[in-house]
Design a protein that fits this description.
The protein is mainly β. It folds into two domains: 206 residues, Alpha-Beta Complex (Sulfite Oxidase, Chain A, domain 2); 113 residues, Immunoglobulin-like. It has five helices and 24 strands. The strands form six sheets. It has a five-stranded mixed β-sheet. Strands 6, 7, 10, 11 and 12 form a five-stranded antiparallel β-sheet that branches. The chain has a five-stranded mixed β-sheet with strand order 17-24-23-19-20, with no helix packed on it. Bound molecules: the ligand Nc1nc2c(c(=O)[nH]1)N[C@H]1C(S)=C(S)[C@@H](COP(=O)(O)O)O[C@H]1N2 and molybdenum atom (MO).
């Protein structure tokens, strides 16, 4: 954590002091479209690297931001698979995962003011009583991209990697709620999990968030026990979790043990105050915003990531550079993805695949020709069917640093043939 903060301040210092000429010298190539390069931006070719760390069930290629609680993100070049492999899926824990899990004793209780009855299911009952469904669902932490905000926001300094898309298998939350019976005054559906508070106090709830009833009743809203056809990894919520595509991943409760059907907006830990909320009306960077002027984040913004090549790749002038990436949205679908090699002045269309289902990410690709040798950045920008797109620099500043969907950019050096 300390090392990371130091690196971050070094990075911010560097940019204040360097001229583009000096940056070119360090990059080892001329920045071809230097005139277009936004003031205050750092060339993507100078992004720092982080040291590896070992997490149970996880690849050493994850970048660990914090080890208590565990928070680890996936570098963009490791998100190139159609679906994110379980060992590469990011981890965002607020507390300590449960230990000594016994599948035979694991139960899920459903209750709440707006539940017609209280009921407890064993894992076996859940699996036998309800129809199974599989969906590809993208999970992204609300704070993904936080490290770019200035003034900086407290919290995990996520770069681009608190996102992944897996095929989740389980039962529809909707089918289970209908088995219980939902009263007409139901407003919210929320979760409790079996993790322990970081203080060790067994009575303290780590996090308990939820979604509006309409989201809970969507077809793709799952109570899942499998991820990419295998058990969910321990750190991602084994043996049972909620998965809501499109909403901030904090709604997708891990180590799921209880669901409540509420007759009011849920008020569990991290649901109130400034958690997972943004100013209802945009504010100037650094503004202090009162709790009552903060609104709950529902959909995550439309976004994309370049997953091939890795930033810093080199290519010869006579070669075309293939690029690949993923685009996702909380609306029905991403409609188009474009790339730019001149810092956003002109854009060319990428090829874009249709989503496997709503909330699945969509692969895109292109082949790029460069006009002369030198330093370039490839920027990608997705647009959804409602016309929402991505800002080139940063979206609106907010106190907790959520919802950064700025265009992803990678550095490319083009050398003489
Ligand atoms: N029980 C429980 N569920 C949780 C959390 C947690 O700490 N405890 N973290 C939430 C947050 S903030 C995020 S971003 C996602 C992360 O899911 P992942 O670790 O599987 O990537 O889980 C959510 N569900
Ligand atoms: Mo999160």
């Amino acid at each position: 954590m300390i090392k990371q903060k130091k690196r971050e301040s070094n990075r911010r210092e560097f940019i204040k002091k360097s001229t583009l000429a000096a940056m070119s010298a360090i990059l080892g190539a001329k920045i071809v479209f230097a005139d277009n390069f936004p003031t205050g931006m750092i060339p993507a070719g100078l992004a720092h690297t982080s040291e590896a760390f070992n997490l149970p069930g996880k690849s050493p290629n994850l970048v660990v931001l914090n080890d208590k609680p565990i928070n680890a993100e996936t570098p963009p070049e490791y998100l190139d698979d159609a679906l994110t492999p379980n060992n590469l899926f990011f981890v965002r824990n607020n507390g300590l995962p449960p230990t000594n899990i016994n599948l035979n004793n694991w139960t899920l209780s459903i209750e709440g003011e707006s539940a017609r009855q209280k009921k407890t299911y064993t894992l076996a009952e859940l699996k036998s009583k309800f129809k199974h469904y599989s969906y590809q669902l993208t999970l992204e932490c609300g704070g993904n991209g936080r490290k770019e905000f200035n003034p900086p926001a407290k919290g995990n300094q996520w770069s681009t990697g608190a996102v992944g898309c897996a095929e989740w298998t389980g039962v529809r939350l909707k089918d289970v709620l209908e088995d219980i019976g939902i009263k007409s005054d139901a407003v919210y559906v929320a979760y409790y999990g079996k993790d322990t508070h970081i203080s060790g106090d067994p009575k303290k709830v780590v996090i308990s968030r939820g979604v509006p009833i309409a989201k809970a009743l969507e077809e793709e809203s799952l109570i899942a026990w499998a991820m990419n056809g295998e058990d969910i990894p321990m750190l991602n919520g084994y043996p049972l979790r909620l998965v809501f595509g499109g909403f901030p991943a904090s709604c997708s409760g891990k180590w799921l043990s209880k669901i409540v059907i509420r007759n009011q907006v849920h008020d569990g830990p991290k649901m109130t105050g400034q958690s997972y909320r943004v100013p209802c009306k945009s504010v100037a960077p650094g503004t202090k915003v009162n709790d009552e002027d903060m609104c709950i984040i529902e959909g995550m913004p439309t976004k994309s990531l370049i997953t091939y090549p890795k930033s810093g790749a080199m290519i010869r002038l006579d070669q075309k550079l293939p690029i690949r990436g993923k685009a996702w949205t909380s609306t029905e679908q991403v409609k188009s993805v474009a790339y730019s090699i001149d810092f956003g002045v002109t854009w060319q269309a990428c090829q874009l695949e249709k989503p496997a289902n709503r909330y699945a990410w969509q692969p895109f690709s292109a082949k790029i020709e460069f006009p002369q040798e030198g330093y370039y950045e490839v920027w990608a920008r997705a647009t959804d069917i409602s016309g929402n797109s991505q800002p080139m620099l940063l979206p609106g500043w907010n106190p907790r640093g959520y919802l950064n969907n700025a265009c992803h950019r990678i550095a490319i050096k083009v050398q003489k043939s």
